[in-house]
Every structure is written in structure tokens, then in C-alpha cells.
Amino acid sequence: MGKNDPYEALRFKEFKVFLLARFALVFGWSMQFVVIEWQVYSLTNDELSLGIIGLCEFLPAFFLAPFAGHIVDRKEKRNLFALCITLFSLISFGLFWLSSEYISDIWSTNYILIGIYSLVFFGGVLRAFFGPTIFSLIALLVPKKAYPNAATWSSSTWKGAAVFGALFGGFFIAWIGINTTLGIIFLLVLFALLLVMQIDKKPIMNKKTNESVKESLKVGLRFVFNDKVILGALTLDMIAVLFGGAVAIFAVFAKDILEAGPEGFGLLNAALSSGSIITMLATTYIPITKSTGKKLLVSVFGFGIFMIIFGASKLLWLSVLALFFSGVFDGISMVVRQTILQIKTPDEMRGRVGAVNSMFVGSSNELGALESGVAARIFGAPLAVVLGGIVTLITVTAIGLKNKPLRELDLRKDVEEHYEDVKSS
């Protein structure tokens, strides 16, 4: 295999356009998450209301994901991505409208909350399509030998946008207010749409046009559940996000425990992602291909340890530091997982596998928000986070002992084979 090129995927123009569009979209999406969480908690002062936001997005994202994957495999990816962004812009505009002074003067708090929850639910429907569409589109923008590098840059871009989106979201709430911030988010989504239209339409890889929906879903699920490496990697990440994460109740920590205000809220959100982005950028120069399975297990274990430290902390600087190192370990696990999926998934099944990935990992963010809200209500936010970190450690230990293929995973051979395939073609 030739010398590693950290900028290999960036040498393709359409992939660079895609990264810029994804950055703008996720930057706006992350800002919107921060603003909604802060606005809802300010209106209710109830931790459970934050969990309801997660539930509203989780339900449609999870249950529609298999059908979304089937549709994505049958549709042209560029136009489908553009359609998802267009519909998401309507959500952003709706939230901007709901936060206006005009609406606050004529609507009660309950009506505003219902409006927010409804738009979040609609966003969950779109989330079911976003994940598999993006996963499938990436593979059509670069050659197969560049998949590991493209997965790293795509994950880094996502995390980088989440970092700055969360950071600016918290600051903008304090500087320019909720309504103006949501207006900026709407413009960012439109900008992402314009960028995506610069990408050419792509061929449809799934030629089985007569395959029934039921059979299509079975094939996708069977592929994932029969592969112990993929299943183990997805399960690890799902448990870490579901029980180990605490993003949904950062508002509680910032406002009531650390007394850091909206600026501190933005710092907490950004700290977790900033550790991830630094790690993922580093992996473009030092690919995580040797002893990959062991590194995945260690990274998720480290994530759980630092989330426990965060839950026990009463100091802002220690909380930010703990979240930063949680993000470092989370970044490693994300790069490994995305690389595994990109390399091992057949082209004609990317939509369905991407959908299963969304069910395991993407939707667990929203379900994790519900779990965090309920646990915070029952045990209090600090103990809820500590208990979640302990569950993560137990899960990593169990999977590490039981799943030998994942524990012994080494991606060097797979990557070398892809390079040899390109040389011989």
C-alpha cells in the first residue's frame, strides 16, 4: 500500500463541496439544538421537557429509518439530499416564527411548546432520511480506495460544525437573542442547499427494482446482524450515546449546577465536540488501522470514565476538561465505526445499512435525551450522568469479552485490498 495521503479525499471537487454544505447544515443544526434546549428549559424549568424533545425526534427517526433506507437505495442521492435540506429549512423557519415577539404575545407557553415539539417531530422524520442519504452519497463522490480518508474528513467536518455550532449557539443566545439566532440558522440551511445543487446527479446503484419492501428490509437487517464486527461497533456506540451521553441536560448543569449561564451552556456543548474534532483531524495523518478493535473498545471505555468525572464535577473548568477528553475518545470510536461501515458495506445496500446505523446511533441521541431527562428527574442530573457512565463501562467490558471478531479487528488488510483492487482495475 502506498504512502498515506491525509488529503486524498479532498482532491475531489464534489467531495469538497459536500463537506462545505455539510458543515453549514450541521453548524445550523447544532445551533438550533442549543437554542431549542435553552428556550424550552427557560419556558418550563423542567428537566423532563428536555427529554420530551428527544422523544419527539426519536420516534419518527427510529421507526421510519428502515423504510427510509429502502427508499434511499432506490432514489438518486443528490436530489434526495437537496429535498431533505429544503424540508429542513421549513423547520428552521417555523422555529424562527415561533420565537418571534408577535407569537409570544398572542400564544400561551403551552401552544408555543406544542409548536416546537411538532417541528422537532417533523425533524425526526427528516433525520430518518438524512443519515442513509449522506452515507450513500459519500461513496459516490470519491473512489473506493479513498473511503477511509473520506469517512475521516466527513466525521471531522460533522464534529467541527457541531463544535462551533454549539459554541456560537450559546453565545448568540446571550448576544443577539433566540429569534435572531434562529433567523441566521434558516439562512445557513439555504446556503447548504445552494451548495448541494453544485453536485452532479449520481447513478442509482441498487438495480433490484422488483424487490419488495419487506424483502429489501430483511436483506439490510440480515447483513448488519450477521456481521459481528459491525453489530458490535454499532452496539458500543449506541450504548455510549444512550446511557453515557448527557448533552440533553447540559442546560441543567449550566444553569443550576455550575451557574454558568448561556455562555457556559455553549462551552459545555462545544467541549465534547472539540475533543472529537481534534482527534479525528489527527487520524487523517495517523490512520487508526492497526489493532482497530482494541482501540475502539478502549475509546468507548475512556468516554465512559470521563463522563463519570463530568457528572461528579461542580467546577466549570473541570466539567469542560472532562467533556473535552470524552470527546477525544468519542472521536476515535466515530472514525473507526464510519470506516468499518464504508469499507464493508456493498454499494447497493448503503441506504439500508446507513439507516440501521441511524437507528442504532443517530436515534439513540434522541432516546438518550429522553433517558437523560427522566433519569435527571428521578436521581438528579449529576447522579444520572454518573450512573450512565457506569452502564457504559459495563457494556464495553461485556462486549470486549464476548465479541472476539471485534476485539481482534485490524483494518490494515481491508484497506490494502481496496488499494490493490484499484491498481488492478
UniProtKB/TrEMBL annotation:
Task: Identify its membrane topology class.
Answer: Multi-pass membrane protein
Pfam families in UniProt: MFS_3 (PF05977)
Which cell locations does it reside in? Cell membrane
| Major location (coarse) | membrane
Keywords from UniProt, A to Z, are: Cell membrane, Membrane, Transmembrane, Transmembrane helix, Transport
* Taxonomy, superkingdom: Bacteria
Tell me where the transmembrane regions lie.
Answer: 17-36, 48-68, 80-99, 111-141, 161-178, 184-200, 229-253, 265-288, 300-325, 378-401
Protein name according to UniProt = MFS transporter
The source organism is Winogradskyella vincentii
